[in-house]
Amino acid sequence: MPADFNNGAPAAPVTELLKGIVNDVGDLVRQEVRFARKEIASDLRKSSVAATRLAIGAAVALVGAFLLGHTLALALFEATRMPIWAAYAIVSVALLAIGGAVAYAGYAKFQTFTPVPDKTLATITENVTGVPQPLATSDRR
Q1: Which of 27, 46, 47, 87 has a beta carbon 3.0–4.6 Å from 73's, enabling a disulfide?
Q2: Distance between CA 141 and CA 137 in Å, rounded?
């Protein structure tokens, strides 16, 4: 066997070196999978909290909007003596426009969130290829 240049000990065969590399890559992938699971669990917890708050807020706002709409329609009816159906129609259209704008804002906010573990995927790609990957999508959080 050829001698190692560092201390005169025999060098490891190529097959053992490759086996060591494969084992190291396997360990690295297992570690990255564990990290991805933790990242996904964290994102799910954040999504759960956000969805719960959104649902509670929407329910309370719905009751408030119903009562406010009824009050505004009656006030418009009393102030103008227009037909009551017209007062309710005007208030309903106004509330629908406001609700649509708020719903669109919520939809746009959800578009900034991604449940994919961007950091983990970039790290795995970097570890496998050796080339650092930009984290452009994770900057949106």
Answers
A1: 87
A2: 8
> Rounded distance, CA 126 to CA 133, Å?
6
Task: Confirm if 97 and 111 have CB atoms less than 8 A apart.
Answer: no
Please tell me the distance from the alpha carbon of residue 72 to that of residue 32, in angstroms, as a whole number: 57
Interatomic CA distance for residues 78 and 30, integer angstroms? 71
How many angstroms separate the CA atoms of 124 and 31, rounded? Answer: 10
Q: CA 22 → CA 10, 14, 28, 101, distances in Å? A: 22, 12, 10, 54
The DSSP symbol for 113 reads -
- Mean pLDDT per block of 10 residues along the chain (141 residues) reads 54 81 85 85 83 91 89 94 93 89 88 72 72 54 45
- Specify whether the CB–CB gap between 3 and 10 falls below 8 A: yes
Three-state SS for 10? strand
Closest by CA to 117, choosing from 30, 25, 35, 29, is 35
Q: Which two tokens stand for residue 20?
A: 């060591």
Global pTM value = 0.43
